[in-house]
Amino acid sequence: MRRFAPVSDATFEKIASALTPCRFTKRSLLVKEGTLANAAFFIKKGMTRSYWMVDGEEITTSFSTEGTLVFSMDEIYYGKKSEEYVEAIEDIDAYRIPADTLRRLVTTELELSVWWGAIHQYEYRRLHRSHKERLTLPAKQRYEEFAKQFPDVCRRAQRCYIASYLGVTPSTLSRIRGCR
Questions:
Q1: Which residue from 11, 104, 155, 175 puts its CA 20 to 30 A from 119's CA?
Q2: For position 48, what pLDDT does the model report?
Q3: Which residues of the chain have pLDDT under 50?
Q4: Are 63 and 147 in contact (CB under 8 A)?
Q5: Nearest-CA neighbor of 13 among 4, 27, 2, 22?
Q6: pLDDT tens across 9-31, in order?
């Protein structure tokens, strides 16, 4: 949790006291399109991917690994049902925090507000960079940049998920990886 911004032990305890350990097996959905999860999840162990369904095809939008927080942006920010899925692509050990508790804490605790803002600055930069790379770089360079930014994901995620994230076919990704 302290990865993005420092928080005092007292503030850490406020959020830690609201956490409940939970476990998800591979292929389980933490968040499902058209529903409210009523929670966010701190990943202790394992990896997830977020994706949208577009014309019956899964389009991977992000990956999350140990030390990160996953949730439905639609739900947490806007109180709306999710427009995406978050799937465990490995067995997950996590901590669940109710959505309303998270919203309350990040709006009433200054250190958590700073922490929350830092997470979103990081994520916005990642999304901005990814969007730019998808629009301007050839597929091979997109993969190379992705591999630099997310080496752990490259080792752990299935090729089809990475290809979807990069906007290439799995066979194109295989050729790109062969060129390295």
A1: 155
A2: 97
A3: 1-2, 180
A4: no
A5: 2
A6: 888 888 889 999 999 999 999 99
pLDDT at position 2: 46
Structure tokens given for 139 = 């597929």
DSSP string, the chain: -TTSS---HHHHHHHHTT-EEEEE-TT-EEE-TTS---EEEEEEES-EEEEEEETTEEEEEEEE-TT-EE--HHHHHH----SSEEEESS-EEEEEEEHHHHHHHHHH-HHHHHHHHHHHHHHHHHHHHHHHHHHHS-HHHHHHHHHHH-HHHHHHS-HHHHHHHHTS-HHHHHHHHHT-
CATH 2.60.120.10 fits 9-99, yes or no: yes
Q: Going by DSSP bridges, is the β-strand pair 92-98/57-64 parallel, antiparallel, or unpaired? A: unpaired
The pLDDT assigned to 4 comes to 52
State the amino acid at position 129 in one-letter form: R
Please give the Cα distance from 82 to 88 (Å, whole number).
16
Angle between helices 110-136 and 139-149 (to 10 degrees): 160
Q: Rounded to the nearest 10 degrees, what angle do helices 139-149 and 170-178 cross at?
A: 80
CA atoms within 13 A on the CB side of 22: 17
Question: Domain extents for the chain?
Answer: 9-99
